[in-house]
Amino acid sequence: MAKCLIQELRQDKNKQIAELAVTPILLNLTCSVFEDEKGKLPTKRADLYKKGLKDLLEKWDVTRGIQREQPYGKLTTVEKEKLLARGAFDLFEREEYFPPQRRLVALIAEHLEMKESEEAEGILKSIESQHGLLVERSEEYYSFSHLTFQEYFTAYKIVHLSPPQLLEDALKVLSGHITEKHWREVFLLALEMLNSADGLLQAMKAEVNNIVAADEKLQTFLISAKEKFELVDAPYKPAAIRAFYLDLELELDPDRARSNTSARARALNRALNRALNLGSKTNSKLEDSINSLREQLPNIDINDATFARWWMSEGAAWAEAMRQMMIRHRNIGHNWQFSDEQKEKLKQYYEANRFLVRCLNMKNIKVSDSVREEIENTLLLPTQKKEESKSQ
Description:
The longest helix has 27 residues, at about 305-330. β1 and β2 (about 140-145) form a beta hairpin. This protein has 21 helices and two strands. The relative contact order is 0.08. The protein has helices spanning about 1-10, 15-20, 25-35, 45-65, 70-75, 75-95, 100-110, 115-130, 145-160, 165-175, 185-195, 200-215, 215-230, 240-250, 255-260, 265-275, 285-295, 305-330, 340-360, 370-380, 385-390; strands spanning about 135-140, 140-145. By secondary structure, it is mostly helical.
């Protein structure tokens, strides 16, 4: 059985699940599901957690022939899941990963409508001792034994415990966290749990647009960029070309590049290679300019300190040369003189779009062709309202 599990985890389709089986409790959960499913693993991580945690919550007493009289022992599996989901969600929203015991006891008492805190404290101790899902990290401070469990139960609370008539609102609230990286696993798990991912993906797209929707200068920049994108004749999706030019705008920001490492040199080198593929073969002067800039970059295998020194002494001049090349050959790359706040918004907008594309390309979610096409066709574009006002 162990050899079969190892072989299963080595398959590309189970890469994400294999990355999880790195701690004893997660490995034990994976083994339990693998055995129950007769030598197979679920294709969705959300299903792995669902089945594994159900086993964990149900089998503890059954396998030991124990019958408990205390309050926690009388809860059904579903009631235990609801309790854990409520606690996980409330704490995750507060970014509280190591709550004091009193906070957990209060949450348990409120959820189960208990008047005596001693009963709620007994339930907390039972969860800790029986399943290992909650552990005491230091005196009277707890956490989920693995952040993955808190992320799963947070997604579970949003998708499965929201009343059907309020699910859309719950997904909109979740979408409001699109720029917060610590929420990303919750997004990925929620997308897998939903019978249709259309609503969440559309809500995410609306929130991505909102990042820059109210900023007139950023909207003007996106309109200008869109007009330039439409002039490019290349065998790529329009969204890919728009992403390339926005990436260049971010890469050429001296403060952003200076604050990073030699990875920036590799990113700039990749950007120049992409530029060569975007039709420059028909323009020998453009091709020569790109090759000249690429030759000036430090070797991509250099260490961080060497690249930092090069950027401090040569980076500003190199970036200006690239900007002038873009203006001369593509009429893009003008110095927009964005404020620090606008630069941050643009960066958030770019990263949120990348995450949205990642979600859209997940293999194990159900998304309609119409919604997929709608999102892909409108990525990195100015808001329709702004475009309409410009045309008027």
